[in-house]
């Protein structure tokens, strides 16, 4: 059997990890990212990850720093390896040795009311379709696919709520618009 993401023969360990992720309903992209991070660790290690030690994990994180891997990527790798060692290998004690990297996060740019008005006015096409989509996206802080998947029944205008089901986070968002 071949891996649909990497078109390689599936090892028993990879198959087990994919099953563990499927049980937890991880998205395709998350699964591909986790597999990639574990593959990178295995390439570094040069042997089966089942034989890894805490020192191997420490050396791998030092290796990432030396290669200039940025903190968000290191943290993604840490989460993937923690999952792999905890759930697939049943070695959660080893996974605890992986360290997350703290780093300053940039605050999002908040548009002025004039900037928002210009953005909405630049919406393409006739009619209100694109203007409404942009208004909802910006006003409620939704991602593009969350806006695309919205249905009329998801909007509760009396309570000023939008139900977002197929988003990255399952949430109900408050929204307000001022004219």
Descriptive overview:
The chain has 179 residues and is mainly alpha-helical. The chain is 51% helix and 6% strand. A 3-stranded antiparallel sheet has the order 1-2-3, with no helix packed on it. The longest helix is centred in the N-terminal third of the chain and has 18 residues, at 28-45. The chain is elongated, with a radius of gyration of 22 Å. The N and C termini lie far apart (58 Å). Residues 3-7 have low confidence and may be disordered.
Briefly say what this structure is.
Helix content is 51%, strand content 6%. The protein is mainly alpha-helical and 179 residues long.
Note the topology.
Blueprint: H1 12-23, H2 28-45, H3 54-66, H4 71-88, H5 92-95, H6 113-121, H7 129-140, H8 144-148, E1 155-156, E2 161-164, E3 171-174
Antiparallel strand pairs: 1-2, 2-3
Helix pairs in contact: 2-4, 6-7
Strand content: 5-15%
- The total count of helices amounts to 8
Order of helices and strands: HHHHHHHHEEE
Through-space gap between termini: 58 Å
From the spread of the alpha carbons, the general shape counts as elongated
Main sheet record: 3 strands, antiparallel
Low-confidence stretches: 3-7
């Amino acid at each position: 059997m071949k891996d649909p993401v990497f078109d390689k023969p599936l090892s028993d360990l990879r198959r087990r990890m994919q099953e563990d992720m499927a049980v937890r309903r991880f998205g395709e992209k998350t699964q591909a990212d986790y597999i990639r991070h574990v593959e990178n660790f295995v390439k570094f290690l040069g042997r089966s990850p089942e034989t890894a030690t805490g020192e191997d994990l420490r050396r791998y994180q030092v290796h990432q720093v030396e290669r200039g891997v940025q903190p968000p990527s290191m943290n993604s790798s840490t989460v993937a390896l923690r999952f792999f060692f905890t759930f697939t290998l049943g070695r959660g004690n080893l996974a605890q040795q992986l360290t997350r990297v703290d780093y300053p996060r940039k605050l999002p740019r908040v548009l002025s009311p004039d900037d928002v008005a210009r953005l909405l006015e630049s919406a393409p096409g006739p009619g209100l379709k694109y203007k409404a989509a942009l208004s909802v996206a910006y006003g409620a802080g939704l991602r593009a696919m969350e806006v695309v998947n919205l249905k009329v029944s998801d909007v509760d205008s009396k309570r000023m709520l939008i139900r977002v089901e197929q988003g990255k986070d399952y949430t109900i968002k408050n929204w307000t618009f001022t004219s």
